[in-house]
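Data card: per-record layout.
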Amino acid sequence: MKSESFKRGLKDGIPVGLGYFAVSFTFGMMATAGGLSIWQAVLISLTNLTSAGQFAGLDIILAGGSYWEMALTQLIINLRYSLMSFSLSQKLRRDVPWAHRYLVAFGVTDEIFGISVSRPGQVHPFYNYGAMCVAIPGWTFGTLAGAISGNLLPDFMMSALSVAIYGMFLAIIIPPAKKNRAILAVVTGAMAVSGLFKIVPVLSRVSSGFVIILTTLLVAGIAAYFCPVHEVGKEREAHGS
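The structure for this 241-residue chain is written out next.
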């Protein structure tokens, strides 16, 4: 059972690892371009496994932000992983030891969570270990390749490749924004608020870390109030009554 689950996780994790390699390549280039050493960039990727959190954290490091900014930014950006872990824990058998649960939680990312919850029935921890064995090296070696290339490639190519991460973010937000007006409003609102922090003289003094925190809390809070997500079961009960 362990061997089969592990092999299945390896197979399902291959596309995830390849995608991570491409995205983390940009992180490696940006980290070394900002003054971090190659091994510092690699260590960050090896121990964090969070794309958005790492890029936001890198901005704070390069801007000389405080530990409070870093802690709050990472808490807000990565809070979704706690919710994913709670959900994924329901897919594990109740007799799974806590040590396995902690290891599975360490490797929870958006993509690994997606392939895990889509599995029919209960998920064996070794399925996640298999996916992690592909995803983690993909993210780490992608960072290494990008960090090394950043010291070798010419400046014009570095500038071209540095926009890859923004292409990834656009690919994430554009499809759902076309289908859901609430998501479109959130994206537009976040752009507007972050733009104000750049344009308004007083607001422009706020550090980049707190800009991320304030923008996230403000826009997400307004969206949650005006566009709440109703549970399907409760809606059906309401209509039935």
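Known properties of this structure: The mean pLDDT is 81. The two ends are 46 Å apart (CA to CA).

See the next section for split statistics.
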